[in-house]
Amino acid sequence: MAARLLLRSAVRAATTCRTGPVPALTRSMAAGGIPTDEEQATGLEKIIMKATKEGKDPYSMLKPKQYTGSKADPHLVPSITNKRIVGCVCEEDNTSVIWFWLHEGEAQRCPSCGAHYKLVPHELPH
Length: 126
Prior knowledge:
Blueprint: H1 2-15, H2 28-32, H3 37-40, H4 43-53, E1 75-79, E2 83-88, E3 98-103, E4 108-109, E5 116-121
Parallel strand pairs: 1-5
Antiparallel strand pairs: 2-3, 4-5
């Protein structure tokens, strides 16, 4: 009996006239494409991506800009207070660090090598 039902459904399928092509089954991602990182991001990741698009570096993740260290172009040191301790490795091969306090206002010199540093205000992103 099962064979008869199977044969009957096969004959019906072969003799039935179809009006158009059978639509192919598609996955939902294939219809709209794979979402981008910006579309999938949420929470803190989305805030960081948005700030990066605007040219900001909210959590100091990028490499800092190189400055000459002269009085006209001092190294900028961000701080949330009016002073910060700074460590200067005066020469490339030097193994010791010269530590000194940097206060807001004019650029200050390293006591050992003479490189200039300036304290700049920094706002926390959250």
